[in-house]
Amino acid sequence: MKTGKLKTAKLAFLVSLALTVAAQAQETPKGDAKNGEMLFKRNGCYQCHGTQGAGASTGPAIGQKPTAIPWVVFSNEVRNPVDQMPPYSSKVVSDQELADIFAYTLTFPGPVTKADAKGLLDR
Ligand code: HEC
What digits encode the pLDDT tens for the residues 82-104? Predict the structure, then answer.
Protein backbone atom coordinates (compact mmCIF):
# COMPACT_ATOMS: atom_id res chain seq x y z
CA MET A 1 0.00 0.00 0.00
CA LYS A 2 2.39 2.62 -1.22
CA THR A 3 -0.19 5.37 -1.70
CA GLY A 4 -1.62 4.77 1.76
CA LYS A 5 1.76 5.34 3.37
CA LEU A 6 2.36 8.41 1.31
CA LYS A 7 -0.99 9.82 2.31
CA THR A 8 -0.23 9.19 5.97
CA ALA A 9 3.14 10.88 5.68
CA LYS A 10 1.58 13.83 3.90
CA LEU A 11 -1.10 14.10 6.53
CA ALA A 12 1.44 13.92 9.35
CA PHE A 13 3.41 16.68 7.66
CA LEU A 14 0.36 18.88 7.28
CA VAL A 15 -0.65 18.31 10.88
CA SER A 16 2.81 19.23 12.17
CA LEU A 17 2.81 22.29 9.92
CA ALA A 18 -0.58 23.36 11.25
CA LEU A 19 0.63 22.88 14.83
CA THR A 20 3.73 24.96 14.17
CA VAL A 21 1.70 27.77 12.67
CA ALA A 22 -0.76 27.58 15.56
CA ALA A 23 2.08 27.74 18.08
CA GLN A 24 3.63 30.73 16.37
CA ALA A 25 0.35 32.59 16.18
CA GLN A 26 -0.10 31.97 19.89
CA GLU A 27 -1.28 34.96 21.84
CA THR A 28 0.88 36.38 24.58
CA PRO A 29 -0.04 34.30 27.65
CA LYS A 30 -1.25 36.03 30.77
CA GLY A 31 1.49 36.34 33.34
CA ASP A 32 1.75 37.42 36.96
CA ALA A 33 4.40 40.14 37.08
CA LYS A 34 4.75 39.84 40.86
CA ASN A 35 5.63 36.17 40.64
CA GLY A 36 7.79 36.99 37.62
CA GLU A 37 9.88 39.33 39.74
CA MET A 38 10.65 36.50 42.15
CA LEU A 39 11.45 34.13 39.26
CA PHE A 40 13.65 36.70 37.51
CA LYS A 41 15.78 36.71 40.67
CA ARG A 42 15.57 33.01 41.45
CA ASN A 43 16.68 31.99 37.95
CA GLY A 44 19.54 34.46 37.88
CA CYS A 45 18.24 36.46 34.90
CA TYR A 46 19.16 39.63 36.77
CA GLN A 47 22.80 38.58 37.03
CA CYS A 48 23.31 39.10 33.32
CA HIS A 49 20.50 41.50 32.43
CA GLY A 50 20.39 43.71 35.53
CA THR A 51 17.61 43.91 38.12
CA GLN A 52 15.68 46.37 35.93
CA GLY A 53 16.66 44.66 32.67
CA ALA A 54 18.85 47.58 31.63
CA GLY A 55 21.55 45.18 30.49
CA ALA A 56 25.25 44.97 31.27
CA SER A 57 28.43 43.61 29.73
CA THR A 58 27.00 40.15 30.50
CA GLY A 59 23.71 40.52 28.61
CA PRO A 60 21.63 42.93 26.52
CA ALA A 61 18.81 45.12 27.83
CA ILE A 62 15.52 43.21 27.86
CA GLY A 63 11.85 44.08 28.04
CA GLN A 64 12.63 47.74 27.67
CA LYS A 65 10.11 50.09 26.17
CA PRO A 66 9.93 51.03 23.35
CA THR A 67 12.17 48.23 22.17
CA ALA A 68 10.36 45.47 24.05
CA ILE A 69 10.40 42.22 22.11
CA PRO A 70 7.24 40.21 21.47
CA TRP A 71 6.45 37.05 23.41
CA VAL A 72 7.42 34.71 20.53
CA VAL A 73 10.92 36.18 20.36
CA PHE A 74 11.26 36.30 24.13
CA SER A 75 10.23 32.69 24.75
CA ASN A 76 12.31 31.46 21.81
CA GLU A 77 15.44 33.13 23.13
CA VAL A 78 15.04 31.79 26.67
CA ARG A 79 14.39 28.21 25.45
CA ASN A 80 16.94 28.27 22.59
CA PRO A 81 19.41 31.13 23.07
CA VAL A 82 21.27 32.19 19.97
CA ASP A 83 24.65 32.62 21.58
CA GLN A 84 26.10 32.98 25.10
CA MET A 85 22.97 32.79 27.19
CA PRO A 86 22.35 29.47 28.94
CA PRO A 87 19.15 27.73 27.76
CA TYR A 88 16.23 27.35 30.19
CA SER A 89 14.16 24.25 29.42
CA SER A 90 10.54 23.93 30.54
CA LYS A 91 11.81 21.66 33.32
CA VAL A 92 13.70 24.59 34.84
CA VAL A 93 11.26 27.37 33.98
CA SER A 94 7.72 26.19 33.18
CA ASP A 95 5.67 27.86 30.44
CA GLN A 96 3.56 29.64 33.06
CA GLU A 97 6.68 30.81 34.91
CA LEU A 98 8.12 32.11 31.65
CA ALA A 99 4.89 34.04 31.03
CA ASP A 100 5.21 35.51 34.54
CA ILE A 101 8.81 36.57 33.87
CA PHE A 102 7.75 38.12 30.56
CA ALA A 103 4.99 40.09 32.32
CA TYR A 104 7.56 41.29 34.83
CA THR A 105 9.99 42.46 32.13
CA LEU A 106 7.19 44.59 30.67
CA THR A 107 7.16 46.61 33.90
CA PHE A 108 10.77 47.73 33.44
CA PRO A 109 11.09 51.49 33.11
CA GLY A 110 13.08 51.36 29.89
CA PRO A 111 16.25 53.12 28.86
CA VAL A 112 16.95 56.70 29.75
CA THR A 113 16.02 58.63 26.63
CA LYS A 114 17.64 61.79 25.36
CA ALA A 115 14.52 63.70 26.43
CA ASP A 116 14.78 62.29 29.99
CA ALA A 117 18.46 63.18 30.14
CA LYS A 118 17.72 66.71 28.97
CA GLY A 119 15.09 67.02 31.71
CA LEU A 120 17.69 66.04 34.27
CA LEU A 121 20.26 68.46 32.89
CA ASP A 122 17.77 71.34 32.84
CA ARG A 123 17.06 71.10 36.55
C1 HEC B 1 24.85 34.00 31.98
C2 HEC B 1 24.19 35.24 31.57
C3 HEC B 1 22.70 35.21 31.27
C4 HEC B 1 21.67 34.75 32.07
C5 HEC B 1 21.76 34.09 33.43
C6 HEC B 1 20.44 35.04 31.35
N7 HEC B 1 20.73 35.65 30.17
FE8 HEC B 1 19.38 36.30 28.78
N9 HEC B 1 20.91 36.79 27.50
C10 HEC B 1 22.25 36.70 27.81
C11 HEC B 1 23.03 37.05 26.62
C12 HEC B 1 24.54 37.08 26.53
C13 HEC B 1 22.09 37.33 25.58
C14 HEC B 1 22.39 37.70 24.12
C15 HEC B 1 22.01 36.60 23.17
C16 HEC B 1 22.58 35.25 23.50
O17 HEC B 1 23.71 35.15 24.01
O18 HEC B 1 21.87 34.24 23.29
C19 HEC B 1 20.76 37.18 26.20
C20 HEC B 1 19.57 37.42 25.54
C21 HEC B 1 18.32 37.41 26.14
C22 HEC B 1 17.10 37.84 25.50
C23 HEC B 1 16.96 38.40 24.08
C24 HEC B 1 17.16 39.90 24.13
C25 HEC B 1 17.00 40.54 22.77
O26 HEC B 1 16.44 41.64 22.70
O27 HEC B 1 17.45 39.93 21.78
C28 HEC B 1 16.09 37.65 26.41
C29 HEC B 1 14.62 37.97 26.22
C30 HEC B 1 16.69 37.11 27.61
N31 HEC B 1 18.05 36.99 27.41
C32 HEC B 1 15.98 36.77 28.75
C33 HEC B 1 16.53 36.12 29.85
C34 HEC B 1 15.76 35.58 30.96
C35 HEC B 1 14.25 35.71 31.10
C36 HEC B 1 16.64 34.99 31.80
C37 HEC B 1 16.34 34.21 33.06
C38 HEC B 1 15.38 33.11 32.95
C39 HEC B 1 17.98 35.17 31.25
N40 HEC B 1 17.87 35.85 30.06
C41 HEC B 1 19.17 34.74 31.83
C42 HEC B 1 22.79 36.35 29.02
C43 HEC B 1 22.09 35.77 30.08
Answer: 999 999 999 999 999 999 999 99
**Centroid of ligand 1 to alpha carbon of 18 (angstroms):** 29
At 109, is the pLDDT very low, low, confident or very high (cuts 50, 70, 90)? Answer: confident
The Cβ of residue 32 has, within 10 Å, a number of other Cβ atoms equal to 16
| CATH entry 1.10.760.10 includes domain 31-110 | yes
Please work out whether the CB of residue 85 comes within 6 Å of at least one atom of ligand 1. Answer: yes
What spacing in Å lies between the alpha carbon of 110 and ligand 1's midpoint?
A: 16
CB-based contacts of 96, cutoff 8 Å, min separation 6: 29, 31
What are the tens digits of pLDDT across the range 23-35? 555 688 999 999 9
Going from N- to C-terminal start, the domains of the chain cover 31-110
Q: How far apart are CA 63 and CA 110, in angstroms?
A: 8
Cβ of 77 less than 6 Å from ligand 1: yes
Tell me how far the alpha carbon of residue 115 lies from the centroid of ligand 1, in angstroms. 28
